[in-house]
Amino acid sequence: MIQIERLEKTFTQPGGERVPALRGVDIVIPTGQFVTVIGTNGSGKSTLLNAVAGSFFPDAGKITIDGIDVTNQAEFKRASLIGRVFQDPFKGTCPSMTVAENLRMAELRGQRRGLRVGLSRLSLDRYHEQLKGLGMRLEGRLRASMGTLSGGQRQAVTLLMATLKRPQLLLLDEHTAALDPRAAEQIIHITEEVVRENKLTTLMVTHSMDQALEQGDRTIMMHRGEMLADLSGSERAGLNANDLLKRFTELRYTVEFAVANKPTA
Ligand SMILES: Nc1ncnc2c1ncn2[C@@H]1O[C@H](COP(=O)(O)OP(=O)(O)OP(=O)(O)O)[C@@H](O)[C@H]1O
Ligand SMILES: [Mg+2]
């Protein structure tokens, strides 16, 4: 279970302007739940995922992953609990290393250096099977360098790397946004399968209302660093992308109105 309590983060821009990116976010994610996250640009979606991953420390609040308080834990320390895939297919892998070497690196993550061993026939065979399962013609590319793969193929390998050791939490930040529609669809399909097969607790940011509703069990909407809505169960099941957009627009309007009419001290 992931517990995010009253999480706050304000960034100071180079000009000195202070931007509140997270304003008291509370979310409890039961183990195995797949949550999709939508929201306007700059609403704090990536900041939320980055705070959970430990890219920076929050100003206030608490983050617990399966009972472990990670709030002030260094990013590398909590890395073994978390799998991540970013929007940029070039992030998260080493382009000059082969696909097999990248997979091996992911598999050895969190182990002491002394325990490291090279690529055995056994692990190569296993990777071959795992890549074949992705259905993106990657099984023949084990010895190809990562940099020669297409964006979609890279994201598929990155997804495999992020989930190889069955993390306690999978964080996906618009991981299909930089892909062409066909590759994006393939990656979403793979995501769905990997999450279901491994029963992974997942937070997936997306700009697609369709993806937000079709994938996972729950959808949260962010706006101005706050969670505007939290939809699951029959309420969510009865919504289509248009309803969601309408709901979002109404809620946003209410918030904007409240902000604009806030009495000044
Ligand atoms: N490292 C940083 N330094 C300064 N400001 C930042 C930093 N990271 C985020 N911000 C600011 O915090 C706010 C929230 O940003 P965030 O990246 O979380 O938004 P987002 O919801 O992911 O947006 P998008 O949909 O564009 O990816 C924005 O105003 C952004 O400019
Ligand atoms: Mg973002």
Summarize the structure in short.
This protein has 265 residues and is an alpha/beta fold. It has helices at 45-53, 75-78, 99-108, 121-134, 151-163, 181-198, 209-214, 233-237, 241-260, and strands at residues 2-12, 18-29, 34-39, 60-65, 68-69, 82-85, 169-173, 202-205, 218-223, 226-232.
What structural keywords apply?
37% helix; alpha/beta; 6-stranded mixed beta sheet; binds magnesium ion; 265 residues; binds adenosine-5'-triphosphate; 4-stranded antiparallel beta sheet; Rossmann fold
Explain how this protein is built.
- This protein is of the alpha/beta class and 265 residues long.
- The chain has a single domain (2-94, 149-242), classed as P-loop containing nucleotide triphosphate hydrolases (Rossmann fold), CATH 3.40.50.300.
- It is 37% helix and 24% strand.
- The strands form two sheets. A six-stranded mixed sheet has the order 6-7-8-3-9-10, with helices on both faces. Strands 2-1-4-5 form a four-stranded antiparallel sheet, covered by helices on one side.
- Helix 3 runs parallel beside helix 5 and helix 5 (151-163) packs parallel to helix 6 (181-198).
- The structure holds adenosine-5'-triphosphate and magnesium ion (MG).
